[in-house]
Amino acid sequence: MAPHSGINTDDIREKARKDLLDLLEGVRGKKNLVIEKSLAGPIGIFVKFSTLQDHGVDKIFFLENDNVDASQKNVIFLARGEKANQPIAVAEQIKRLQKQSNIDHEFSVVWVPRRTLVCNKILEEAGVLGDVGVEELPLHFIPLEQDVLSLCLDDCFSDLYLRKDPTSIFLAAQALMPIQQAHGLFPRIIGKGDNAHRLMELLFRMRSEAAADESTTSKFGLMPSASVESLVIIDREIDFATVLLTQLTYEGLIDEMFGIQHNQAEIDSSVVGPAPGAQQSGRTPAAPAQQGLKRKIQLDSFDKLFEQLRDTNGAIVDGLLNKVARRLQSDMESRHTAKTTSELRDFVNKLPGYQTEQQSLKTHIGLTEEIMKNTQGDIFRRTLEVQQNLYDGSDPSYQHDTIEELISRDVPLTAILRLLCLESCISGGLRPKDLENFKRQILHAYGYQHLLTLDALEKMGLLSSRASANVLLNPIGMGGGAAEATKTNYNYLRRVLKLVVDEVNEQNPNDIAYVYSGYAPLSVRLVQSIIQKQHLLTITKGASAASNGVSSAAHGWQGFEEALRNTKGETFNRVQKGDDQAVKARHMLAGTGGKAKTVVVMFLGGITFTEIAALRFVAKSEEGRRKILICTTDVISGDRMMEAAIETGDFGRG
Fold first, then answer.
1. ∠ CA 558-632-238 to the nearest 5 degrees?
2. How many CB atoms lie within 10 A of CB 136?
3. For residue 563, what is the enclosing H or E element?
4. How far is CA 167 from CA 80, 159, 174, 189, 191, in A?
């Protein structure tokens, strides 16, 4: 069998689409589809509503709304089966329809990505298991982009770090196994963090189980992959600080201010204008009817202008848009210079493209103006100043007056908690006196229900007190011993991995630090220590030290052992070997190759858009040598991290 040329995310998208449509085809006639809200966005990425209609879907209802009607005999429920809430909701709605409807309904339940014992037990206890057809939809990775795969597990962060629920680790392993089955074993699995170590062990166990299962042995790759170089697993827990910082790339700023979910952002139409083709009642640019009306904006590589802007630092987007506007104006004016019929025909053929680009330009100018309005505000600048002082290594106590002022100005709680958690992560905790003072101020300003919020942050390890002043300089006892760190020592890593870069060229960046205007994400620095050893050694120790040190052919973490001892969690570097005879035969048939191999980078617990931009920067500099495929449990931000802990109840106020 010829080696695969690489991992094609379009194949993953097409398989997901085909699996879903095949399940719908399996239920004859018209049908109503009841879908869990958290699945609607991911499914919308690879299949349109019109396609579902072509396959017999009449109406779509959200499971959480409990409003499915009896308009069709066939009712299909599509929900995740990992937790009890969804099976309970499915059972209740089936019983309601059976009781209230005169139609003899035929029910089907499709569990994503698998059927569990919990599902069966709940449906059985509700007395409806015998009345439904049960199927599975093995929907694992969803391609957000050609180089980004996500499990789209919205609750993954709180499950892993607050509730200590390892389900997402198992689902990540289940998602990675088909890649091994299609492309061969990951030749090397490298990673950092306790949960990352659990994922690695799970992959080895699943491989053993697959090898023992005769039905899967024939299709399972017994050899290390010829197209994949390695799997790098990063546990989010080793670098919480990066997520807590304000993202400063264009896509990151959109996410910070509007929120991006499954390649879409809901934005007020007064900012981006009405949808293309929408009728406008007047010619005023901001008609009252538009105020408060939300419009969904698609943010992916199908928008060529967004693809060009997304990973740039937000500070230069305005200038880039000006260039595009001038170029587009020049192109549109070319119709006046067309002298022949063929030149005019060429212009007419290009006109739809110009109109699409013009609409995209209008949208992004509106977004940029709104972003600039926010970033030039006093609160944004004060918040950013505190963040930069903290990661620069300044005494955190000097930032407390600013944080207290922000509390008194009724800044959103998420912003305050991000600053406190950032100080806690970088400094090894807050002084007990300061922590108690901030807790008291938060309870007075935002409500006593946030006793539970603060407790949740402590459980996740995001907010803690430090035992002594020495912890600020040495939070984990830097003795160079072999013991794993219990906290990530940012003060040490700032120096040895050059996390802070003073001179940043945002226009033509030469380091990943441009994504935070001077701070290099630790998570991506660790990935660089594996795939860009010489480059990282050069910028951290100098060219002479790099040339005399570790060779570029060194594998795994070699050369950065001391940095890893100062980073939280277990460190591992495991090689997967296949059948020796099969490996030799493959080498004889395929030769040495020469094509760029793929490094799969898996972020367990979530990744930010800024880290994705930094990894793309690394991939661009490695072009021709290797490709990077980014996998994650979900795309997160500092606000979503805080929302996982924030208590929404109000203790009966009023």
1. 50
2. 16
3. helix 561-565
4. 12, 8, 11, 21, 19
Roughly what angle, to the nearest 10 degrees, separates helices 413-427 and 432-446? 170
Q: Closest by alpha carbon to 308, among 145, 317, 621?
A: 317
Per-residue burial over 459-490, b if 16 or more Cβ lie within 10 Å, else e, is ebbbbbbbeeeebbeebbeeeeeeebbebbbb
* CA gap 10, 149 in Å, rounded: 11
CB 451 within 8 A of CB 412: no
| Contacts with 107 (C-beta within 8 Å, 6 or more apart), sequence order | 75, 76, 77, 94, 97, 128, 131, 132, 133
How many residues comprise the chain? 654
pLDDT tens digit string along 361-407?
999 999 999 999 999 999 999 999 999 999 999 999 999 999 999 99
Cα gap 640→256, rounded to integer Å: 10
**DSSP one-letter string for 377-441:** SHHHHHHHHHHHHHHHT--GGGGHHHHHHHHHTT--HHHHHHHHHHHHHHHTSB-HHHHHHHHHH
d(CA 86, CA 83): 7
User: Distances in Å between the alpha carbon of 341 and those of 332, 335, 346?
Assistant: 17, 11, 9
Q: In sequence order, what DSSP letters do the residues of 599-652 get, joined into one string?
A: EEEEEET-B-HHHHHHHHHHHHHTTTTEEEEEEES-B--HHHHHHTT-----TT
Are 179 and 600 in contact by the 8 Å Cβ rule? The answer is: yes
Structure tokens at 228: 């994949």
Residues 6+ apart with CB under 8 A from 603: 234, 236, 523, 611, 630, 631, 632, 633
User: 543 burial class (0-12, 13-18, 19+ CB within 10 angstroms)?
Assistant: exposed
Amino acid at 499: L
DSSP, residue by residue, 476-499: T-----SSPBSS--HHHHHHHTT-
pLDDT above 70 covers a percentage of the chain that reads 84
Q: Which residues of 151-166 are buried (b: 16+ CB within 10 A; e: fewer)?
A: bbbbbbbbbbbbeebe
More confident residue, 540 or 470: 540
Report the DSSP beta bridge partners of residue 189.
Answer: 231, 574
Residue 492 has pLDDT above 70, yes or no: yes
422, 241 contact by CB (below 8 A): yes
Residue 476's pLDDT band (cuts 50, 70, 90):
very low
Residue 605 region by backbone torsions, left for phi larger than 0, else alpha for psi between -120 and 50, else beta: left
CA distance 161 to 145: 27
Nearest-angstrom CA–CA distance, 461 and 458: 5
On whether the CB atoms of residues 50 and 100 are closer than 8 A, the answer is no
Radius of gyration over alpha carbons of the chain, in Å? Answer: 27
Helix 37-46 to helix 9-25 angle (10° resolution) is: 120
Cβ contacts of residue 615 below 8 Å, gap of 6+?
A: 524, 527, 601, 628, 630
Task: Name the average pLDDT for the chain.
Answer: 88
pLDDT mean over 163-179: 96
In sequence order, the 6+-apart residues with CB closer than 8 A to the CB of 241 are 391, 422, 425, 426, 488, 490, 522
Which amino acid type is present at position 547?
S
Residue 235's nearest CA partner among 465, 470, 461 is 461
**Residue 649 identity:** G
Query: CB of 298 within 8 A of CB of 328?
Result: no
State the alpha helices, DSSP H only, in 184-221. 194-212, 214-217
Give me 240's structure tokens. Answer: 């919480």
